[in-house]
Each structure stands twice: as structure tokens, then as C-alpha cells.
Amino acid sequence: MENPSLGWARSLVCGFGSLFVPIFAERQAFGPIPAQDVALSLVMMTMVCTAAGYVLTRSAPLLLTRLLLRLHPNLQLKDDVWEEV
């Protein structure tokens, strides 16, 4: 008979491990992905990356430059960078 506390610990370890390595109780089909699914994934990722890029470059003046200066406060930038502010 299995110790109940070990069953709980095992399920906790398996649950945490599934974040890094997918663990499924039943077998999962594996094989080529249909072209329509690949195309949809590419379109969706392009839209997400475009939206993120737009927000990071257009929402506030020089947002990326200000974030860079927070990480490296002693960084000396050319005056051309600050002309848009």
C-alpha cells in the first residue's frame, strides 16, 4: 500500500514538472501539424509581436530608451537620441 503523503508529494512534483516537461495521463497524438494550423499560428504570433512592438515604440516617447537607462544609469547616449523627447 502506498503512503498517502507520498502520493500527495508525487502529484505535487508531477504537477510542477509538467510546467517544464509536459506529462499527460493518456497518450497524446504526435505528428505533422496541418498547414492551416501552422498558418494560423504564424498570423497570430505576427499580430501579437506587431502589437507589442507598436506599444513599445509609439505609446510613450522613447520608452525603450528610458527602460535602457534604468538598467544602465551611467550609459552615455548621443544627443540625437533625445531630440524626439
Give a topology summary.
Blueprint lengths: L3 H14 L17 H24 L4 H9 L7 H4 L3
**What's the overall average pLDDT, rounded?**
78
Which series of helices and strands comes N to C? Answer: HHHH
Number of helices: 4
What is the β-strand count?
0
Characterization of this structure:
- This protein has 85 residues and is mainly alpha-helical.
- It is built from 4 helices and no strands.
- It has helices at residues 4-17, 35-58, 63-71, 79-82.
- The longest helix is centred in the middle third of the chain and has 24 residues, at 35-58.
- 0% of the residues are buried.
Task: Describe what is shown at a glance.
With 85 residues, the chain is an all-alpha fold. The protein contains four helices and no strands. The chain starts with a helix and ends with a helix.
Any key phrases for this structure?
mainly alpha, flat
